[in-house]
Amino acid sequence: MQPAHRETQWSALVGHASTLRGGTVRGIDARVQFGEPGIMLFQYVLRAELSSLTLPTAQPAERADGLWRHTCFEAFLMAPGAARYYELNFAPSRQWAVYRFDAYREGMSTIRLDAPPEISVRRLDDRLEVDAAVPLHELIALQGAPRLRVALSAVVEAESGTLSYWALKHAPGKPDFHNPLCFVLELAMS
Length: 190
Prior knowledge:
The protein is an all-beta fold and 190 residues long. Helices cover 0% and strands 43% of the residues. It contains no helices and twelve strands. The radius of gyration is 15 Å and the shape is globular.
């Protein structure tokens, strides 16, 4: 576990070995930091031949389920020592989702935010950049926590429909971003 601080440096996500057959993704970098008070900023850069990927087209910036079935960027947040955690999904379409879990993959509930994440997407010749600014005040399981444990990850869909899974750290076995071993960053809340 890295020491607690208010922002992270850019870190390379690692592709899960079982899902990297002949992919065209050259790499994914991610970082998280606190912006203005109460706002957490997640940033992702997917470097790839974008024409070989299936990227969701622009949609209204609204909540949607099942985003992880296609190209999607994710973050998982928990207070150290707590069982509850949040899963945040950000799609290149600008759709988003937030879920709360009572424990590892248990007690899932949908969180509807009064102030949804602000998602910006930039498609360039050789990369896709996605930034998501998330208001934390509605994630009540995190209130009062002096620090947060964070996992950053991504799902990338190839033109063929196959998915590759990327994370700062993978737990043993099949891809599983929910595994507590994936929560390798620690950020101070103040």
